[in-house]
Write a structure and sequence with these properties.
By secondary structure, this protein is mainly beta. The chain contains no helices and 9 strands. The strands form 3 sheets. The protein has a 5-stranded antiparallel β-sheet with strand order 6-3-2-1-7, with no helix packed on it. A two-stranded antiparallel ribbon has the order 4-5. Strands 8-9 form a two-stranded antiparallel sheet. The relative contact order is 0.19.
Length: 117
Amino acid sequence: MPRRFNKQKKLHVKKGDEVKILAGKDIGETGRVLMVYPDKERVLVEGINMKTHHDKPSQENQQGGRLKREGSVHISNVQVIDPTTKEPTRIGRKRIEEDGGGRWVRYAKASGEILDK
């Protein structure tokens, strides 16, 4: 059944997660997620996929010049690192019951550790 109300895609990564790169020129490296783009299914990872950006001179940057910035990576090319084992793991979702209701949380399938606090 298609989603009718909240049509935003549910992704396995969130801002602040530690991830490992599975494909591309930075394969095997790890970094922290800086930003997630759900509509494009891409993530910005700190220090990964560095691109050269040419800046014009401005008030803040009088000199201008070439700057290195992170480029986005497709979400299928990253895997979340399990906080207990420090190894990449698949992510699952489960509902936990709390006072007066429940909520959905992400958990590491390898160890069962809950990632969302």
